[in-house]
Amino acid sequence: MPKPIIRPFAFNDETVENTYGFSILTAGIDLTRFTKNPVMLSDHYNSNWNVIGKWLDVKKDKSILSGLPDFDTEDTDAASIAGKVERGYINACSMGIIFERDDFALIGDKVVLTKCELVEVSIVPVPSNANAVRLMHADGKIMDEKEIQELSLSVIPGIKNPDLNLNIDNMKKIVLSIATLMALGYKDQPNDGLDVSDVETKVLGLSTKVESLTTENETLKLAAKTAKEAQEKEIKTRVETKVDLAITKGQILADEKEEMVSLGITSEKALDKVIGSIPEKKNFSGGIKVALAAGAVDVKTMEDFQKLPLDAQLSFKTDNAEEYKQLVESIK
Question: Which stretches make up the Prohead serine protease domain (predicted)?
Fold first, then answer.
C-alpha cells in the first residue's frame, strides 16, 4: 500500500519570534549532521522507540526551512501519529538544535540566533516557532527554560523581553506569594523581588528541617509500635495464665480456652467477672463424707452411694449435685 503524500512542514521561520524572545536565522542553520540522519522523533524523546520516521526533501527557501515527513507506518505509534497529521489534527514540528552562546546577536531591536546545528526535528502538538524549539548543549543535553531565557536576555544588559516580563538586571530575583513568604520566614518582599540564592538557602534549610522532623517522627512511631506490641504481649500472657488456672480449677473446659483468651484480650475485666461467677469444681478423688446415725461414711463410688439409706441418698444428690453427676458418669 503506497504511503500517503503529506504536505511539507516548516521547521523554522526566521521572521517569527519564539516565546523565549528570539528568532533563528534560517541561513545560519547547519544541516550537515541532520542530512546524514534526518531523524523524526515524537516530542523530542531521544530513544529508538520514539523514532517515528524521517524527513525528506529538506531545504531552505529564503526565511523558511522545511521538510517532507516520511512516517514509519510499519510502527503502530508512528502510523497513529501519521493519521493525525494526515487528518489535520497535528500541524506542527519542532527543531532540536545545538549552538554556541556567542552565536546570539542583536539585529536592529531583535535578538537573533545567527548560527546553530540541526540535530533532529520532532512532531509536536504546538505551532512552529510559538514554542516549538528545543535548544541543546554541545553534549546533546536539553537546556532548561531558565538557561534559554538567560541566554536570549544576555545579548544586551538590561534588555527587557515583553513576553517574559523579565530583564537581565533581575534575572536573579524572584517574587513570592504572601503565603510562601510567611512559610520561608520573610517579613516582607522588596519591590524588585528577592535574591534567588537567598530564597534557595531558605528552601534548603526548610527542606533539611522537614527531613529531620520526618526522621524524628518515624523514630517515635517505631517506639510507639514497639511499646504497644510489648503491652499487648503482656496482656495476652496474663490472660492466658488466668484462663489456664480456671481450667485447672474446673471452672471452664479446655476447649473453651481460645474463646476465653479472646474475651480477656478484649476486656480483662469481663473475663475476671465470668471466671468469678463460676464455682470451682471440688476434687472428688478423696470422696464425700456423709454423716449417718452410726457415724460418717466416705462416698467415693456409686457402690458407696447405693449403700446409703434412701434419705441420705436424696440429701447427697441435693447437696452434691456435681459429685453425684460424676458418680453416674463413672458407671456408664
Answer: 39-134
